[in-house]
Design brief:
There is one protein chain. This protein has 65 residues and is an alpha+beta fold. The chain contains three helices and two strands. The termini are far apart.
Length: 65
């Protein structure tokens, strides 16, 4: 993957896949590779209804348990 998608659904899917498949061990390392700030990604996706779960290392819909 050369870049992160801008569409929120595609972005969540891409980030979760890259973290799940252990391409990157943290959101920070993924963001560093793609020259993005973790807070920028978290804030953008939070506005779209997703929250980052540190323990699971994935974005989930707000309210999902």
């Amino acid at each position: 993957m050369e870049y992160l998608p801008k569409d929120p659904g595609m972005l969540v899917s891409a980030v979760n896949m890259l973290l799940r498949d252990e391409e990157f061990d943290t959101l920070e390392s993924l963001c560093c590779y793609f020259d993005k700030e973790p807070e920028e990604i978290k804030n953008y996706l939070n506005e779209q209804g997703f929250v980052y779960d540190e323990e699971q290392k994935q974005f989930r819909p707000i309210g999902y348990k």
